[in-house]
Amino acid sequence: MATVPTVAGWTTLEKIAGEVPGFVRGGRITDAQIVVWGESIEQQINAVMRRRGLSLVAADWSDVSGADLLGMINRLGAAAQLSAAVAAQFGGGEWGLTKAVERRFEREIKALGDGDYDKLFRPGAATVESGTLFGGGDMTDEEGEVERSFEKGQVL
What we know:
Helices cover 47% and strands 3% of the residues. It has a two-stranded antiparallel ribbon. The chain has 156 residues and is mainly alpha-helical. A hairpin with a 5-residue loop joins strand 1 (139-140) and strand 2. It has one domain (13-127). Helix 2 packs across helix 3 (66-88). It is built from 5 helices and 2 strands; from the N terminus they run αααααββ.
């Protein structure tokens, strides 16, 4: 009996297949192909994490839910490819599910790359509320209008 391949990393074969309603494994789209898609997306996630300077070791993270986030991104990316392959079996046209899952994946991988999730992975990135702040003096733009020097959530 052949061993069933698994997706190394952030998600499982079952979860990827579960993103495509009604998909039944064991047909023309093989488990091995789904594994390749999952591993490909995992490499993309790893590259984004490294580019952001974030550790790939969960023990280094601020929040253990980082693994759930990476699993979701991994699952969405691989499921978009699976969904496109399923749609191709029915005439190769556009399939709404494929576009929806692909958009979700692109939005999440962009957020990861933009640093929106850094607080999950980097302890020093945690936001701390410090109460009322005092600022002295005014900052003005070229037209002499008063501007705020700092705003909550501003990245410097």
